[in-house]
Amino acid sequence: MRIASFNINGIKARLPRLIEWLEETRPKVACLQEIKTMDDGFPADAFEKIGYKAIWHGQKSFNGVAILADGIEPVETRRGLGINGPNEGEGEQARYLEADIDGVRVGCIYLPNGNPHPGPKFDYKLAWMKRLRERATELWALEIPCALVGDYNVIPEDKDVWSPKAMAGDALMQPESRDAYARLLADGWTDAIDTLNPRGGVWTYWDYQAGAWQRDHGFRIDHLLLSPELADAMTAAGVDKEYRGREKASDHTPVWVEIAR
Q1: N or C: where does the chain have the smaller number of CB atoms within 10 Å of the terminal CB?
Q2: What global pTM score does this model have?
Q3: Is 57 an active-site residue?
């Protein structure tokens, strides 16, 4: 069973690339972030045509998450974490969606970026991470196979970025961000990519600016966290790096984990 995550950076603009990736790699579950569309604009029919069922949580122009499953309907178990955005009167942003798929609970995450730091957006990031940890604790208590995957907007360690110095002032690398992520791992969740690539040097994001892709100036912010029930069954995990180099690509690349089920 392959569970994948892909920050698509606009589902309408990248739909041909997304369909291409799904057909070429055929993950059982694909979690998408930054779909950047209202619910009524989600292209569910395009996924139906290639055998994928979908649920989604949209928002106009920003954010948005979706879960696709190959040949099976995802059964939604949670929509949102009940935490409002950083602007007064904004309400909750579309950043979390959770479903049961073929005996596995999957949470799709688009964690706040947090820039500029310091400021209300960074405070919101930390508050969101605290609420995520609370939800992770609730899921842990169920003792079910569970994966919390997506764009965490956290560079966990210096080995996960091309230049720690260049990113030192970014919200993605602040001690508070890293500590909040580390607390999830300390609770018993397994970072699939890191576990199989302990020396680091694996990137999932390359900025569109300053030739970052061409110079391989990237970092790792897309993560696959597994409960013990899934971590024990993990057989492989990786990054589909080549998709970042295709025409009209997202600035992220897909990440995936293979589970023996």
Answers
A1: C
A2: 0.97
A3: no
Residue 138 counted as an annotated binding residue: no
Q: CA nearest 256: which of 106, 96, 72?
A: 106
Query: Could you check whether the bond before residue 112 is cis, i.e. omega within 30 degrees of 0?
Result: no
- Residue 240 pLDDT greater than 90, yes or no: yes
- pLDDT band for position 88 (cuts 50, 70, 90): confident
Kind plus residue range of the DSSP H or E element containing 47: helix 44-48
Matching residue, tokens 């009167």: 89
Candidates 52, 57, 70, 110; catalytic one: 110
Single-letter amino acid code for the residue at 229: E
3-state DSSP helix/strand/coil % of the chain, to nearest 5: 30, 30, 40
**Could you tell me the residue ranges of all domains in the chain?**
2-259
2-259: CATH topology is Deoxyribonuclease I; Chain A (3.60.10)
For residues 249 and 234, is the Cβ–Cβ distance under 8 A? no
Percent of the chain with pLDDT over 70: 100
